[in-house]
Amino acid sequence: MELKSDSLKVSQPPFFAFVTILYEPTTTFKRINSHPTGWFPLLTVIISSCALLLWYYSVVDLPWLVDQMLDTVGSTDEREKSAEFLTREMMVVSSLGSALIGYPAILCLLAVYLVTASKAVSNGISFGKGFALVAWANIPNFLLSLLGVMQLLLASSGKIGLSELNPVSLNQLFFQFDMEHPLAVLTDSISLITFWSIFLLIIGFEVWAEVKRSTAISIVLTPYIIVYGLWFGYSMSKVL
Q1: 9 is a domain residue
Q2: pTM for the full predicted model
Q3: Which of 1, 3, 46, 141 is the most exposed place for a label (fewest CB within 10 A)?
């Protein structure tokens, strides 16, 4: 059963929506419903992330970072061979590639899923609208860049791991797994920001696809449960 939206007719400039979506998401999604472009939030998150990464690799103690990354490598020869490839330039290119290519690709996949799901439960939304939805829902990721700046300012002698730029991840807040622990990457990838973005995605899907809140929750949570569930199962297989 569809829930008819009482979308506001007055549009909202992207800059103001960037702020208001953080504290009044339902109203904001209704206001930008008539012009749902995702380029502004997408570029804002990408540019801020790239700027933070460039700053990080310009100040991090590289020999210390390489030692941390190769801490679990067995022999000295293996460590030396691996260290040859872990140059500052290689790390910069790899990290920027994730921000410039990996991040938009993940948003596209999620948008395709939401578009397909919307057609099964309502009149459906276009891909452009679906992409705008996931881009706006991930606006809280911009706050991660600000938290990363804070972490860099507080770091001493450049001895700070890349995962430490996100102080609100589950690993940093609760578990404190070492880098070599099988669950470290998983718990570093999930943060309070992740849950905030999921919440915004639920609200946005409810408004734009015109469905019940319960329907939006089940549709939005499904891919997260599958992906993180499989990831957790794989990580636990290495722990046991």
Answers
A1: no
A2: 0.90
A3: 1
